[in-house]
Amino acid sequence: MAIVAQSSKYGRVSRASFAWIVGLLFFFPIFWLVLTSFKTDADAVKPEFLFFFTPTLDNYLNMTQNYDYWRFATNSVITSVFATLFTLAVGIPAAYAMAFNPAKRTKDILMWMLSTKMLPAAAVLYPMTFLTKSMGLFDTHFLIILVLSLINLPIVVWMLFTYFKEIPKEIIEAGQMDGVNTWGEIKEILIPLAWGGIASTALLCFIFCWNEAYWTVRLTTTDAATLSKLIEGNRAPEGLFFGRLSAVSAAAVGPIVVLGWFCQKQLVQGLTFGAVK
Amino acid sequence: MSNRTLPRLLQTPAVVLLLIWMLVPLSMTLYFSFIRYVLNNLRRPEWTTPSISNWRGFGNYEFVLNSKDFLFAIQNSLFIVGSILFLTVILGVLIAVLINKAFPGRGLVRVLLISPFFVMPAVNAVLWINMILDPVLGLQGLAVNGINDLIDGLRATPGVGWFFSLWPELKPISFRATQTSAIAVIIMVTWQWTPFAVLIFMTSLQSEDQQQKEAAILDGAGVWSQFRFLTLPHLGRPIAIVVMIQAIFHLSLYAEIEIVSRGNGNKNLPYLIGEFANNNIGAASATGIFAVILANIVAIFLLRMIGKTLME
Hints:
Chain A is mainly α. Chain A has helices at 2-36, 58-61, 63-67, 69-100, 106-117, 125-134, 141-165, 169-177, 182-193, 195-211, 215-218, 227-233, 242-262, 264-272.
């Protein structure tokens, strides 16, 4: 027995160290991006400055000058925030209706919503370009907000639906007895009760909007171009600008990675549509 | 019951919006796929405006099926998606089992592991292809140079030098050719999506029956047979879900291909559609319809599985 206990202790230590190595390996590219962002463009490609160098903030300070970062970042913030708000405004009533007043077809509607998510975006690339250009919506914030909302609406309705389903029906029905109308039910009872679920849904929706890279690249040129477009436009720096490219990239992903840490648990529910618990 | 009508109507905006979003562009794609429609053609200017009089029947579909790019794009799509699925599932299961048991700093390791998933695709591609995989200036190039220098130094060492002079000079791999850039895409997407698989498998492992496991240990089951006969069957459903969700996402992979492979021949279906859409809208639309069919085959299986859960 003593031998078994000893070997399992040895096993535990090696298992823990191995887990740490794996975690650090996966994080390394992000670490490398951030590290490079503090090097000058010249130092960034010199092997002698791989890990030890004189850190500089110049890349961050010159982001406006080099890349017009703030314009793209502002567009990313505006489109992601408003798309998230709009998606919630449409999604909360829909999920409420489905969770508390299910009809025969509710399940089918939910399934159908999900199926729209599976339509490959590229298949409708030209019609979208054609329509938005002829309506004068191409490269506008309004268009990007609308598109981001529609892309994420199915996931948001699904996530909210699974959260709302966990609220006992009796609580909502008690409100009806007291003569609260539908709007009151949502505002006074549902939203306070499901606040945590709504917040994490919103967070996840925001992350997806921020990272979207098909429509934001194909349906914009300058006015409504987001950070995805900025990075895509500077994809091949040929090693000349590793430092400044790292800074702009780190600034584009840093806040989102940190936000992501706070909603990793909800991610499972959101991306598997409640199918893995 | 009539007071339930209003609450039910609340789902209308969401349904109507999605209906328009799905039907309008898709029916246009369907229409364009049956007519001759190009953006520039000096000899046949009538083809540059969509019109029913330019009806081509299945001509665009034939054209697409006969172009060698199409077959290559399908093959390449399947190669890229298949490899990513294979790698993420294997790595995902191994890592999930590895970090399932408590150890010091487990929370922090989880945070480190999940981070790649939140990196925007454009940054992922730029970071990997330039700073890591570049054969000269990236870490790959620097590492290969470093190793070569080291071996060079050892060759000059008396006594063991003859041994190292038998070693070949290492050459860095360029990831910008057709085939290697597909591999670069596989590497970067695997890096990004393995965390997703880990997260889902871990969530599922939390609900594994511990009593059953203890009984198995008492019966003398080894680590391998516990994994093979208890853990793996338990993970069957989550693996299927991870495979299908990823298949849907990766069949429409775009930013990575665009950034890594523009102009070097490595393409998948979405990229080919983009190429066609520069001029031949009819062909782009027909390719789009093929992409929809391909995605639907995967989606039907996925929806069935999720539908089952919803019934429970």
